[in-house]
Amino acid sequence: KDSNITGHLAGGENSNSIEDAYRFSDGGGIYIEGSRLSISDTTLDENRAMYGAGLFIKQTSSDEKKLTITGGSISNNHAQGRRHTGNGDGGGIYSLTIYLSIVHSVIDGNYPRGNGGGVTSYPYGRLQLPGSAGHLLSVMNNIAVGRGGGACTHR
């Protein structure tokens, strides 16, 4: 809660330079695997990775398949993709979870070289982006080379 995660680069052992280090790993800001949790009032800004530059979520059991993001911002993150294909999805968020809910948040200015400028939910995910008066959400200025500048779900 109340955290700033800014300017991180997800790299790997196969990196030959700082420029291509982030093309080998996921989750530039946060990588979550096998945990049920909530993220509150957190800023994920200017992070870079292969997929899910701001946040990469991989849930593995039925008890862990819900993530709620409340408050904060996910902005200016860049998903580069694999070195040779350049098809990184989820500029802001890449979710491999059954249920992802985002409320009272800003998703702004994220850029993947693939699908889902702001959010990519795959493969059987349920993405909830409530926009009613009680659950304000701003999704703006995200650009995707592929599908879904704001959000993209795959089934």
Structure, described:
The chain is an all-beta fold. The protein has no helices and 15 strands. Strands 1, 3, 6, 9, 10, 13 and 14 form a seven-stranded parallel β-sheet that branches. Strands 2-5-8-12-15 form a five-stranded parallel β-sheet, with no helix packed on it. It has a three-stranded parallel β-sheet with strand order 4-7-11, with no helix packed on it. The protein starts with a strand and ends with a strand.
Q: Total number of β-strand segments? A: 15
Largest sheet: 7 strands, parallel
Quaternary organisation: single chain
Structural class by SSE content:
mainly beta
The termini sit apart by 32 Å
Shape: globular
Number of helices: 0
Q: Mind telling me the C-alpha Rg? A: 14 Å
Give the helix level as a range of percent.
under 10%
Can you summarize this structure?
The protein is an all-beta fold and 155 residues long. Helix content is 0%, strand content 41%.
Write the layout of secondary structure elements.
Blueprint: E1 3-6, E2 30-33, E3 37-45, E4 48-49, E5 55-58, E6 66-75, E7 78-79, E8 93-96, E9 99-103, E10 105-108, E11 111-112, E12 119-121, E13 126-128, E14 137-140, E15 151-153
Parallel strand pairs: 1-3, 2-5, 3-6, 4-7, 5-8, 6-9, 6-10, 7-11, 8-12, 9-13, 10-14, 12-15
